[in-house]
Each structure stands twice: as C-alpha cells, then as structure tokens.
Request: fold
Amino acid sequence: MNNIRLYDFLSFLLPGLLVSLAISFFFSYIVPLLPSGIRCEDLGSIGSSIIFLLIAFLIGHVIQAFGNEFELRQIKYWGRRPLRTAKHTGKKTDSGFWASFVSFWATVIPSLRFAPFICLRIRKELGLIPNDNGGWYSRQILRPEDDTYDSDTKRSIRLGAAKILDVPFQEEECVFNNNEEERKLADHKNQLIFDRLYRFILLKGVAPQTDDFNSQYGFYRGICVALLVCIWLSLTSTAIYGLKLITCLNQLNYFIAAIGAYFTFDFLFFIFRRRYERFAFYFAYSVYQNFLVWWLAEKKNYESK
Reply:
C-alpha cells in the first residue's frame, strides 16, 4: 500500500474513530444506552477493539457521504479568510486594526464570531456570510476578476485546453462580464476545463503533488464533519447536565466539562475548516499549475525543433 492509498484509508478511519469515540462516550456515560461489550470501559479487549475499528471504518464512509453535502454548503463562503486570504498570499486584509483584532480572537475563541457587536465587514472576513465571488476554486481561478494568475497566464491555460483537450476558446471569456447568466455559463465551462485538465495530468503523470493535496483535502473535510457531530453531542451533554444542575449541584463539574468540550471542538472545527478550504485551493491550483508547466514546456520543445 503506497502513501496515497494509506492516506485515503486514514481519511475514512480517523474521522470515523473520532465520531465513534464521541458516540461511545456519550451513550456510555451521559445517556447509558449502549449494550455491554462496546462501551468505553470494554474497549480494552481485543475482540471489542476490532469490532470498534470496523464500526469506525463504516462510520467514516458515512461521514464522507455527508461531507459532500457539507461541502456544497461551504463553497459559497470560499474566498475570504480572517487576517489572510484564502489563497494564503500572506497579504493582510484592508479592514483595519479593529477587524484584524476581532478576527484574531474569533480564531482563538470561535464562539466569539456569533457576538452581536461584530459588524458586517468583519462577518465577511470571518466567512459568516456568503462571498459574492465564492464557489469552487476550480472555477474561481479562471475567472477574469480572480488574481491568482494574470490575464495572460489564464489565456495560456485556456488556449492549451483548446489545443490539447478540444475545449473551444473564446476571447470574451477572458473579460469580466456583469451578466449573471453568462457568468454561470462561464463557470460551467471553467469546471469542464478543470475536469479535463485533471484527468490529463494524471494520464501524463505530471501531477506529483495533486493527489496528495486531494487526499488531504478529503481528510480535512471528513474531520470537519466529524467535529460537527462532536459539537452537537457536547451541546446535548451541556443541556442534559444543565437540567440536572437544577436539582443536584453535584453535577456542576460535569456541566463545566461539557461546556469545555463544546469550546474545544468548536475551536478545532474552526482550525480544520481553515485547513480544509486551504487544501481545496491548493488542489485546484496544482492542477492548473502542473498543466501550465507541461504545456509551456511542450511549446518550447516544439519551437526549438
């Protein structure tokens, strides 16, 4: 098993393990409904551990299935990042000191992002409202207004796709268009170019990092969904212990622990969500970059003959 296949395997197993442990803990101690043999205290035996791993692997596949739906809800926010752009260019946003200050603490304490005093501009920076120019990075990169590549480079990619992959080139696609319907059609064509380029570079064997980026992209997506399940379980635990606290003060430590679990999982979700989006961009960028390098090298070899 090579490294990529191992990583793909772990992208199912690790999120599944996280959710399985959270569910096992919740239904072993907070709402004790699990039968003996698969509770947390029984996992020390070899048989129970093997069964637990198999269940975790199956749950990992379910998580990846939900990950597709999760992604469809996330792509409309892509294109903004607190303090730094989603494309990791290293440039700070132009929202001023206050926006940067709140963005930083909203990263450290993610629940702060729901505070009512955060203005619209900062909510945009934190990705709390949809980005007007959001969507798949595979489509964003080829848009005329996107600054990942300059216009000449994007034209070269389009011309290469037209020459090698029979995707018609039209000059007006390189110019910004305000017509929403035509922009949607252009996005669909950008996706067509990306899909063919991805398969082409795999066929040519010129994608040394693309599969790695794709695997990590899938891994972080699975972890994000798993953490959302953990957040829901921790909130449920907080509500249960909060109700018990009304009649029994001895439940205070458990109530505090449940709140602490929520903040911990919320923080981890915010961090992994950043990594997830970043690798979504890295994956799309690597496809275009690998094809561009191959295409320019082929043109140079042809001209030198």
